[in-house]
């Protein structure tokens, strides 16, 4: 019973993790905008000062948490506890 619940949670984490990763911007997007000057790629811009509150930083934090949960559940489900 517990293994089934953990498997369902594991599948949900996998789906949400895929969605969160796909919704993030690529790393070269910020590099391109800073080279071309689009978006004001200065270090003292609004986005550099409030980087921790941006959508991308929130997505990075969610990705990190989901990745840890993904690996912990994978190891737990593979352990001898449920076999």
List the helices and strands and how they pair.
Layout: H1 2-22, H2 27-36, H3 46-49, H4 55-78
Q: Please trace the helix and strand order, writing H or E for each element.
A: HHHH
Give the helix proportion (percent range).
over 70%
- Proportion of residues in β-strands: under 5%
Give me the number of helical elements: 4
Sheet with the most strands, sense and barrel status: none
Low-confidence stretches: none
If you compute it from the alpha carbons, what radius of gyration comes out, rounded to the nearest whole angstrom?
A: 18 Å
Question: Got a strand count?
Answer: 0
- The computed structural class is mainly alpha
Overall pLDDT confidence: 80
Shape: elongated
Spatial gap, N to C terminus: 12 Å
Could you describe the 3D structure shown?
This protein has 83 residues and is mainly α. The protein has a domain at 1-6 and 54-83. The chain has helices at residues 2-22, 27-36, 46-49, 55-78. Helix 1 runs antiparallel to helix 4 (55-78). The mean pLDDT is 80.
Summary?
The protein is mostly helical.
Highlighted features:
83 residues; elongated
């Amino acid at each position: 019973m517990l293994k089934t619940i953990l498997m369902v949670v594991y599948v949900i984490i996998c789906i949400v993790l895929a969605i969160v990763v796909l919704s993030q911007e690529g790393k070269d997007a910020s590099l391109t905008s800073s080279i071309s000057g689009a978006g004001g790629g200065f270090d003292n811009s609004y986005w550099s000062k409030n980087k921790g509150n941006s959508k991308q930083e929130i997505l990075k934090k969610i990705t990190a948490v989901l990745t840890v949960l993904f690996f912990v559940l994978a190891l737990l489900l593979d352990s001898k506890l449920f076999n």
